[in-house]
What we know:
The protein has helices spanning 3-10, 26-32, 73-83, 97-106, 116-124, 128-146, 148-153, 158-171; strands at residues 14-19, 42-47, 50-56, 67-70, 87-90, 111-114, 176-177, 182-185, 207-212, 214-215, 226-227, 230-231.
Amino acid sequence: MDFRKILEECKADSLVFFTDGSHVDENFYYFTxxxxxxxxxxxxxxxxxxPVIVTNRLEAGIFRGKKEIIENREDAEKxxxxxxxxKVGIDYSSITARRFxxxxxxxxxxxxTDISKNMEAIRSVKDRHEIIKIREACRIAEEILDDMxxxxxxxxxxxxxxxxxxxxxxxxxxxxxxxPPIVASGKNSAIPQTLGWSMKVTALTSRVSxxxxxxxxxxxxxxxxxxxxxxLP
Length: 233
């Protein structure tokens, strides 16, 4: 990854991204290479020499590369001031107002710019490693689709089928599902994004709809969405 080129495109000296257990920032996982199935509370500062991960001692072993291990908020703020340049880029669409206000206070006197559109464009171009992951995600999805009839037949309810989809994805080497599977049978299939769970799927005339996605090993760069409507044999 060419960090200097990315910073030039964002017109910034450094980029800062946050993530915690309740908020997943795609940019954080993009630059750290960490799987999105692993929840952490950390910050990544992207510099010309590469990313610097600001994290606590308990989670430090999860990351590779340069790290700043902190014990408290004051340490985190010092690390931020140390590695962030005069012009700092952040993704406004991936940060809360409260965190933004705190961030601006910590980096008082430095210029903060919105790079949300820049990051969207940068991440839309896939490199060779990401393409490999996309192909693997497609393979996993095709394996599940090929076995879909058997999965439906062995499931008594929508909840059962959702569990079977989860297991099938992991059995085929997916790291995790990228979002909870949405399964709908019969009249529930007419309801968008339904999570009824209780409707039976074993009736011969049932119509089943489902949507699911998988994370490929390590990076989880691709989310496969597939929807099927069929009558059971």
